[in-house]
Amino acid sequence: MRTWSEMASIQPLVSKMLTNSLTKERISHAYLFQGARGTGKHALSILLAKSIFCNNKIGIDPCNSCKECHRIDTGNHPDVHQIAPDGQSIKKEQILHLQKEFTYTGLESNRKLYIITDSDKMTANASNRLLKFLEEPSKETTAMLLTENSQSILQTIRSRCQIMALQPLNPENIKNKLVAEGLSNSNAKLMAALTNNISEAIEISNDEWFANARKIVVQLVEVLQAKPDESLLFINNHWMPHFKERGQLQRGLDLLIIWFKDIIYSYVGNGESIVFVSEQEKIAQSSMIWSRKHATKVLTNIMEAKRKLDQNVNPALVMEQLTLQIQR
Question: Tell me: the pLDDT tens digits for 120-144?
Fold first, then answer.
């Protein structure tokens, strides 16, 4: 997103609030951008950073061609610092390094700005360090915390931020854009359910690993229905060898979530919302085996499994427990 009008096309409310602040020169010392993946949190933070530092603005829009804009785009601006998880979490040392950097005078202005991606993944020590940093804000400092899960952030940190809730993008619009890019209707619908990012959706749809992942998810459902006693064997012999990394396992669980949502759509007669369009007969079979109540409970179980993976619980144990829960 290069202009505020472009950002307003996907996030009108947040864009209006921020453009009003820019116009009145009333930038908050801390923002919390919360929203699902693909809703534009990082693009929004970069656009706001450029609007603050650009010296050749057109109204409130950055010029996108000056030295300041280019260095922010490439992550090389000396007064704009970006922090992301180091491995599974953001550690205390990363926040300490940020604080040290901010003790120096701005190299080219008095302003300093920092962006913390996945801020919900800060360790307890990192969170407490950041809290102390936020409690004594510099007039010329702006913090941007990006998260998909604001409830995992300390309430004391959230209370010191201006919260900007990004709205989910319309899956139908995303699906139509993907169809225009050449994806089949059924594939576009599945991609739109997985991500709000058009480029990512196209990449996933062309990924052979994902194609096999989709098959394995369907096979797991079939084993759970027809041969439940063999389901744990299937997890260890087929599921875990394919979903080797935690991110891949999360993707597999996302597909399972979609499957059980489709079962519920089948129960309530909402066939238009079914995502696994090419598997509707199998969805119908699943609805004959698992009740609507059980499917709803399984969705809760899968979400809990995803949280456990984020907490570094052993992946094999997480999947074995989930498999047993689905059988019941």
Answer: 999 999 999 999 889 887 768 999 9
Q: Is residue 190 part of a domain?
A: no
pLDDT in tens, 214-268: 999 999 999 999 999 999 999 999 999 999 999 999 999 999 999 999 999 999 9
d(CA 7, CA 2): 8
265, part of any domain: yes
Task: With respect to residue 153, please indicate whether it lies within any of the assigned structural domains.
Answer: yes
Give the C-alpha separation, 1 to 10, whole Å: 10
DSSP 236: I
Kindly report the CATH number assigned to the domain that includes residue 83: 3.40.50.300
Q: In the β-sheet with 141-147, what is the strand arrangement from edge to edge?
A: 80-83, 112-116, 141-147, 30-34, 162-165
Distances (CA, A) of 73 to 30, 34, 158, 213, 290: 21, 21, 27, 34, 49
Q: Are residues 211 and 159 in the same domain?
A: no
Q: Which domain holds residue 44?
A: 4-165
With CA atoms as reference, report the closest residue to 109 among 129, 79, 89, 84: 79
Query: Per the structure, how many domains does the chain have?
Result: 2
Instruction: Give kind and range of the element (H or E) at residue 100.
Output: helix 92-102
- Whether 285 maps to a domain, the answer reads yes
CA 64 to mean position of chain CA atoms: 26
